[in-house]
Amino acid sequence: MKICYDNCEQPKYGLTFEGAFHGRTLGALSLNRSKSVHRRDFPELSGIHDVPHSMAGVERLREKLDPDHGHIPPEQVAFLILEPVQGEGGYRVPDAEFMSAVNDLCTEHDIPLIADEIQSGVGRTGEMWASDHFDFEPDVITSAKALRVGATISRSELFPDEKARISSTWGAGDILSSIQGSLTLAAIDEHDLLDHADRQGKGLLDRLAPLQDEYQALEDVRGLGLMAAVEFETPDQREAVMEAALERGLLTLGCGKKTLRLLPPLDVRDRELDIAVELLDEAIASVSRTATV
Ligand SMILES: Cc1ncc(COP(=O)(O)O)c(C=O)c1O
Description:
alpha/beta; four-stranded antiparallel sheet
């Protein structure tokens, strides 16, 4: 965000999407449109506009930015930020049309695009960046989690020339984490983990799909690569299944209001996927037999 604000001559606005989550640091909080618990009662950055995470949202943006009838001058927009696959908001995988419409709109108005790849990047979806699945060219990419260390990547023409303008003490991260990150990148390359994650991700979705026919409580199965999720009809069902899964030794995580996510490691094997889906199946069956569902 600071790179983009610094690059804009009159930085007044930033654009984000409904369902977004960009972290818990004070500035990033203003971009969040998922759970209220993160944002509540903290001061906000001014000028952040949000639109729905859909083609209708892109149309709204187009209207807002229209030089004749809109109310946001495009030259005052420092950035548009999005997660190429929304994480905390509920594992929402966008369609290709949406991503290219966002990309085109930003190119048309010369608005820098930030891809928050903190959850979706570094091989998780079967490409190095989830953005690579789409016709989508970010100007700034944020990365962390799988990289073991936080890193922000930007086109050099956007990056401030002035030394120490963005960060200092933690600018290079922690040395041990940086080594872990660099070894992670080398391992992804050496063991062909992008192809593996792509293949195993498809295998995981194929294994999960029959559950949707089997259980009425399951509303949707979706994902990209090894970001996989199942959505229930109610938050209570999701909570009960997460608990029943944990009792059986399967660790899952909630996202959105009633979605459960599965994030196996990039080197996950068939046997582990078989066991995971079997345990999840058992967990859903056990919950379906009780009064909560
Ligand atoms: C998309 C995304 N951005 C940013 C973050 C960083 O969050 P935090 O600031 O809480 O570490 C996360 C963590 O889950 C994330 O999923």
